Structures
1.
Amino acid sequence: MKLHKTTGRIEKEIVLRAPRSRVWRALADAEQFGAWFGMKLEGAFAPGARVRGQMTSPAHELVTIEFAIERIDPESRLSYRWHPYPFESGVDYSSEPTTLVEFQLEEVAGGTQLRVVESGFDRIPLARRAEAFRMNDAGWAEQLENIARYVAK
């Protein structure tokens, strides 16, 4: 993990043993994204779209997350904004700043390198910043393993 103290960024990379087109479909198709991410998403990913989803993982089934899709560069980059770690019951996170999540794909020997960068933690309220960062840092490590298994099928 790389932590840039000045901007509060999480950066993770993994080489996936799958062609870039396969990895891209797993990222850019909301149904496939939800399958490996552990969500049931409503709507399609498109620039400017807001896509909402319900977590499907045990203990988080009541959590709804909204993605505000920012950028889609086919087979290269997908980015969205969201509220990091919005898991406290009864809390309305809508007035808080969001973080930016960027997925970047690059062909490499043996497959596709996927890089995930989540930035903007320095804007999250101090009372929950450290926990949101810690939980998302661990979460991205797990999600990269999930997508690796998903695209290897």
2.
Amino acid sequence: MRRKAFTLIELLVVIAIIAILAAILFPVFARARDRARMTACGSNMNQIGKALMMYTDDNEGVYPPDRFLVNGNLVPPYTWKRALSKYTSSNDVWVCPANPAVMAAGSVRYGAARIGDESNIQTEYKLDKSKWLASCYGYNGGYFPTESIYPLRTVTKVKDPAGLMVIIECRTANPDLGPWTYSWTTDKKGTLTAGYSSGPVGVFFTHNKRMNIAFADGHSGSLTLPEVYGRPGDGKDYWGVGNPDSNGYVVPGRNKANWGSQVVASNEYW
């Protein structure tokens, strides 16, 4: 006996059901994948925060600067990542699995080559890319500035270590970040271009509109962009950016010269 074939209507109904199920499930799978990536990135941030505390323990309570001097100069620099990488289990901890800017392009100083962390171009690392560090995380360069520019920040100088952000996700090879980076735009792989930051292709990277962060007391967590920066005049300031006081330390408080029109074009985050 011959089997009855599907009619055209029946086939169309089956296809429509499959399409509906796919439309429902694909976003769910995508969100689940991003949550998994955010968890992995959060684990990285947790390890980096602990490495930060181990560094301060070994250095009389002093936090690393964003860049160290090498033979009296900053070209090429030894960065905070190099200092903390001695305390991490592997270099994989510097890679956010959701960030395509793993080896972001260098600043104007170093050209457009994809160098990742600036320290990768030092002679001792330059020829061995297995020792290169990724560029997925940036340092609070306003509060923890380059060595020799201001006195190094110590644990005792931080009034609210649980509230001061030290490390945040990014898409730039520059080791330091701050409000000034709102005036930068990068493509998805971290190539620096002109103009303002525009949503997820800008300097700061998010997981479902959140970012993993390590704080000055070593703990880590995730915040939204508004939670990190607030709006101009709202009194929020997690960066602790400001002008140096009479002792050379940066006073917590918004650096108004770097805000104004640079505060953000990416309204989707608000």
3.
Amino acid sequence: MVHIIKTIPEIQHELINEYKDQSTATVHEAMGRRGAMTSSIKPIKKGIKICGQALTVDMPAGDNLMLIKAVSMAKKGQIIVINNGNVVDSGPFGEVLAVECMTKGVAGLVTSGSIRDSQAVTNLGFGVFASGLSIIGTTKAAAGKINHSITCGNVVVNPGDIILGDDDGIVVVPLGEARDVLKAAKQRDAKEADIMQQLKTGASLFDLYNYQNIIDQLNITEE
């Protein structure tokens, strides 16, 4: 088995730029309510938004050798996505690696584990989504994998998949579905814009979607 794969499928920058205008909730709904990582993975600072293709890292808890290697390989616009298990008492990423990421133009980092130096990373303006914060140090002695399929936040992430993150969380769009999902998301945005315009003129969401029909089917009684 090849542990480290250096190339990932790439898509047009224009498609990534269009995804940057979307919200995670809209994309998740447009994709049939798929792709949302667990709510434990949050931005380390409100107001962060990230979007780019995934560079995946599968690494043992308490060791960051493969993460350092991945950062050295990372290209502008990519997002490093790490399967670090559910171990939050370990800080494999901090200010030093964030500086290298910023210099390379890496678009962000998502981890199922924790990071350290959160204030310094935030001050740098680097977008990070993590399950926690931990100052506990790591070794550099264990093997892992780069650019293989991983699971992060209970979602399968393949190298090259589109990662979109905002204050609400992270959604993963499989690369092969990217154009169809974007089209569906735009259609959903247009529909919701129309609905909100009707609400502003006094309409009711309950009536617009005929939710009374569901009430009746459930035999819910009213006074």
